[in-house]
Design a protein that fits this description.
Layout (H helix, E strand, L loop, with lengths): L10 H16 L9 H19 L3 E11 L21 E8 L3 E11 L9
Antiparallel strand pairs: 1-3, 2-3
Helix pairs in contact: 1-2
């Protein structure tokens, strides 16, 4: 057990990582149903790895949805709710798009109390 003071979920840091990962993976992509599983897996893996490297004191949950734009597209409403410590835990949602697709990526960060002592 390590004693580490929790600094809280830093939305700006998470947002920068998420935006960079999504842009690098999707910037020039068109919607191709066959490529979506590998694109989402790449986005999820890169996001988790970079978040872990940035702040290993957190457990992360990442959800990624990619939708086709245009006449064939349909509506989507998504919502989440969490019961957690608002002083340390947090979330960030990125809504991203290019000419061909939409991407919604949500990160939930929960302090890892196995390695961090929460004392705010």
């Amino acid at each position: 057990f390590r004693l580490i003071m929790a600094s809280g979920f830093v939305v700006e840091s998470v947002a920068a990582i998420v935006k960079d990962v999504v842009d690098k993976n999707l910037h020039y992509e068109v919607y191709d149903q066959g490529k979506i599983p590998s694109l989402t897996q790449s986005i999820l893996t890169s996001t988790i790895e970079q978040l872990r490297d940035s702040n290993p004191n957190y457990k992360y949950i990442v959800n990624c949805s990619i939708l086709q734009k245009g006449q064939a597209a349909s509506g989507l409403h998504t919502q989440s709710s969490c019961l957690w410590d608002t002083k340390t835990d947090g979330s960030y949602t990125l809504r991203w798009e290019n000419r061909h697709l939409h991407c919604i990526l949500t990160v939930f960060g929960v302090i890892n109390t196995d390695i961090v002592s929460v004392s705010m």
